[in-house]
């Protein structure tokens, strides 16, 4: 389920968007101001943010700049400030789209969907988990800026799990995705490769862990916010 963070000091707007977002299958988190939003993002993996501009403590412009600095997610600004100078300032701050209040909730939804699709297309070569970047284009993994080259099957296994954080895969599914339907070896091959990945990334347990789901298979649990596509 895609988690969307709505940041607005108007409780009525947050409730209105909650109704529409949940109806479309999104999970919504909410914050009254920018500081609360950043606190939420430190603890939860958020895939997109809908941000008001005029808020107490930390306004939408500053929040957007912080999101651009630390996260790789689309931002949609939702605000009563409709002058061209306000829009220019918002895009300079890093927003991806801009809607002026009053608004139609359905328009917010289709613009949000478009942004999520665009980010999927732009970033589909890279998966980010905290300080780790998995680059499917050149088969490299970067940890704190240092490049690690993995054996091909280990890389593909890590990328498969990281592409769907918290989703459980059976050994048979991982064999199909990584080794292919024609693979004739034992499914326990997956266990060996998982063990190697855990050993290689033992120092990255603040970013993610690969968990065994007893009797089923494995899942990658993301422990730090990041961007994934």
Explain what this protein looks like in three dimensions.
There is one protein chain. This protein is α/β, with parallel strands linked by helices. The chain folds into 2 domains: 3-123, Rossmann fold; 126-222, Arc Repressor Mutant, subunit A, CATH 1.10.10.10. It is built from 8 helices and 12 strands. The chain has helices at 11-23, 34-43, 60-70, 84-93, 105-123, 152-163, 171-179, 189-200, and strands at residues 3-7, 27-31, 48-51, 75-79, 97-100, 126-129, 132-135, 140-143, 146-149, 169-170, 208-213, 217-222. A 5-stranded parallel beta sheet has the order 2-1-3-4-5, sandwiched between helices. A 4-stranded antiparallel beta sheet has the order 6-7-8-9, covered by helices on one side. Helix 2 (34-43) runs parallel beside helix 3 and helix 6 (152-163) packs across helix 8 (189-200). The longest helix is centred in the middle third of the chain and has 19 residues, at 105-123. The model has no long low-confidence stretch (mean pLDDT 88).
* CATH fold-type name of the largest domain: Rossmann fold
> In which range does the helix fraction lie?
40-55%
Report how far the terminal alpha carbons are from each other. Answer: 14 Å
Provide the succession of SSEs.
EHEHEHEHEHEEEEHEHHEE
Question: What's the quick description here?
Answer:
This protein has 229 residues and is of the alpha/beta class. The protein has eight helices and twelve strands. Helix 2 (34-43) packs parallel to helix 3 (60-70), helix 6 (152-163) packs across helix 7 and helix 6 (152-163) crosses helix 8 (189-200).
């Amino acid at each position: 389920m895609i988690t969307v963070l709505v940041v607005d000091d108007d409780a009525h707007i947050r409730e209105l968007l909650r109704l529409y977002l949940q109806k479309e299958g999104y999970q919504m988190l909410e914050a009254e101001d920018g500081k609360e939003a950043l606190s939420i993002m430190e603890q939860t993996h958020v895939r997109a943010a809908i941000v008001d501009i005029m808020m107490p403590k930390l306004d939408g412009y500053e929040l957007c700049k912080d999101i651009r600095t630390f996260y790789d997610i689309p931002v949609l600004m939702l605000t009563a400030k409709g002058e061209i100078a306000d829009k220019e300032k918002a895009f300079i701050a890093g927003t991806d789209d801009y809607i002026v209040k009053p608004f139609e909730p359905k328009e917010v939804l289709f613009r949000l969907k478009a942004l999520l699709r665009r980010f999927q297309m732009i970033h589909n070569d890279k998966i980010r988990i905290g300080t780790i970047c998995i680059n499917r284009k050149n088969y490299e993994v970067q940890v704190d800026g240092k490049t690690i080259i993995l054996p091909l099957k280990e890389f593909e296994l890590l990328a498969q799990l990281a592409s769907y954080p918290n989703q459980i895969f059976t050994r048979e599914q991982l064999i199909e995705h990584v080794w292919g339907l024609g693979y004739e070896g034992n499914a326990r091959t997956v266990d060996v490769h998982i063990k190697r990945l855990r050993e290689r990334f033992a120092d990255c347990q603040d970013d993610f862990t690969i968990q065994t789901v007893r009797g089923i298979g494995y899942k990658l649990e993301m422990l730090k916010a990041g961007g994934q596509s």
